[in-house]
Specification:
The protein contains 15 helices and ten strands. It is α/β, with parallel strands linked by helices and 369 residues long. The radius of gyration is 21 Å and the shape is globular.
Length: 369
């Protein structure tokens, strides 16, 4: 439906009219912040072993940047975009800020060269305690372990495991949900301690062996971070170990915010002023901690317009991956991509955003409306 609608919108000229309307709604200029996770050489191959929604091929990533430029956006650093939002300077074009979450090494291998070649600035948000350690994210480990359980035909019917572990396995192995969707719900429901407990329970039943740790999903090291920083690319904080802060007590929030900032500043020799909320979730309490620790902005995953004069601690982002751009034929569709980047479908009421504001440390991550 979206692909067909995109063709009509683009060829009729309505796309440009909707973009102009969105520009008016935003207060004069659109500030689009796009978010990526992993840029890979072979999307189809990586799809067999990784969370699909984190992946985009190098070729499609380049096409996104080309499409954004063709749609009239000027690429800007986050700092420049914040200045325009706050009225400290005027932009001659709509602005686009490119961001990456998590600090995956394949961004350095396949995304960074494209950015350099095209002269596009970007910011990468780092889970500071994991950089250069060889560790993997909890979400990648859980995805890998449940896939192993599926492949081995593991059935936990008579096994005694922690209730969350049983819940996750039963949801996936019964076919009620796909693994990536089940993981989204699981991570949105439980704190980091439960994720670790689930990983340990699965490893006990599937191990021992080095294959328990996924080969893919390795992170940058500090030399790679410093190399990008010397080239003018920005870095922000993304907690110490990719922690959803609204699940945690405030002393943990304070430590995750303060120490992640300090580690990046020490290792990369830069000043860190920007933050990305894990899972896109935030609360008033988390924002107060960020402000007290010298941050100037924080990004969500709320796919909504950024308004002139808006709150820099609830910046809206559009999270992109490979299939964001797949049209009716199964191939890349520039028309669909540009219509989505221009926010045509939400302007027409065809898509509702997922809000990120939550109650702090509330059970099951209740939303604050």
């Amino acid at each position: 439906m979206k692909s067909a609608a995109a063709g009509v919108l683009h060829h009729s000229g309505l796309r440009k009219a909707l973009a102009a309307y969105r520009r008016y709604q935003s207060g004069g200029r659109r500030i689009l912040i796009v978010s990526y996770h992993r840029v890979v050489a072979d999307f189809t191959g990586e799809l067999q072993r990784s969370i699909p929604g984190l992946l985009i091929s190098q070729e499609t990533f380049r096409k996104h940047l080309e499409g954004l430029s063709a749609a009239g956006y000027e690429f800007a650093s986050l700092g420049d975009a914040l200045d325009v939002m706050a009225g400290r300077r005027v932009a001659q074009k709509d602005l686009c800020v490119v961001s990456f979450d998590d600090g995956y090494r394949d961004v350095y291998r396949y995304g960074y060269p494209v950015l350099k070649q095209m002269g596009v600035p970007a910011i990468t948000y780092l889970p500071a305690a994991l950089i250069g350690t060889g560790q993997r994210f909890n979400h990648d480990r859980l995805f890998h372990l449940v896939r192993m359980a599926q492949a081995r035909g593991y059935k936990p019917v008579f096994d005694v495991m922690p209730a969350p572990t049983t819940e996750l396995l039963d949801t996936v192995l019964s076919g009620r949900k796909r693994l990536s969707a089940a993981l989204d719900d699981f991570i949105g429901r439980y704190p980091t301690s439960t994720l670790v407990e689930t990983i340990q329970a699965l490893e006990e039943r599937l191990g021992p062996g080095p294959e328990l740790l996924p080969e893919q999903g390795d992170l940058m090291d500090w030399d790679e971070v410093r190399r990008m920083a010397r080239d003018g690319y920005d870095f922000g904080a993304h907690t110490l170990g990719h922690v959803v802060l609204t699940h945690e007590p405030l002393d943990v929030v304070e430590r995750e915010v303060r120490e992640s900032k300090a580690i990046i500043e020490r290792e990369a020799g830069i000043t860190v002023r920007d933050f990305a909320y894990c899972n896109g979730w935030y609360s008033d309490e988390v924002i107060r901690v960020l402000k007290a620790n010298g941050f100037r902005s924080a990004v969500t995953t709320e796919d909504m317009p950024n308004l002139m004069g808006g709150d820099p601690f609830t910046l809206k982002r559009k999270v992109l991956w490979e299939n964001f751009s797949v049209g009716m034929t199964g191939a890349y569709s520039r028309t669909l991509t540009v219509c989505q980047l221009d926010d045509c479908f939400s302007t027409l009421g065809m898509r509702a955003p997922v809000l990120g504001r939550r109650l702090q440390n509330a059970p099951r991550g209740e939303v604050v409306w």
